[in-house]
Give the backbone structure.
Amino acid sequence: MDAVEHEWGSEDGMSLWRTLTVAAVMLVGLGACAGPEAQREREDAALSQYDIGIGALAEGKLPKAVASFEGAIRDDPSNARYHYALGNALLRMGKIEDAVAPLRRAVELNPRLSDAYNDLAACYIQQQKWDQAIEALRRALSNPQYLTPDRAYMNLGNVYFSRGQYDLAEEQFRKVVDIVPQLPDGFFFLGRTLMAKGRVADAREQFERAVKLDGTIPVFQYELGMALLKEGRKAEARDTLRRAVELNPMGPEADRARQALRDLP
């Protein structure tokens, strides 16, 4: 029996070609429809994981938050916010080395994500990588839409203070108190910087402002007491140092305050 061969030019061959072509077109069409739908499903799943992580973060359940953010990234790896959230949670856990990579990825995906730059700088500060910290903070502050620049100025001031660059540190802390005058920390760190520059009276004024805003912080009371002591105002210094001890008798400021009290005549 003769072998039967089909060529594309024959009638049977053309019929087979049309059948295969139509099937291929249908598969492509189905793929195009399934692609966006599947992508939306992954994005919805990622958002759900992200929301769970945010809830866990608010409750202080950091390991659960980390797991949720990692799940969100698996479903939607191109979302900068998810990488930032993971880095932020790891930073809160004290896992500085682990936090750096997701924070870097976050700013790669969205260079205007100033919060991620600020957290990245916080990691570098912990690692004493001052130059990298300064660069990250400058990038954070380069965004005119950054809603909380005081955080970056605070970190930048602490970097300059750690490097002994007190003029630059003072400049940053003054920006903090201008932006958020209701925040005692800015006045405290400004006072500390002025003390380092030998401007005791100016430092004392800043410590007084910090204490007025929140008198429950032992270190605020301690630093104010030491400034008063340097000014020779011993009675006021004694009362303030005693207050530092009362607020937290077991804390480090209490030990230093007791020593200063023992040294008073």
Notes: Residues 1-28 have pLDDT under 50 and may be disordered. The two ends are 124 Å apart (CA to CA). The chain is about 80% helix and 0% strand. Residues 11-58 form the longest helix (48 residues).
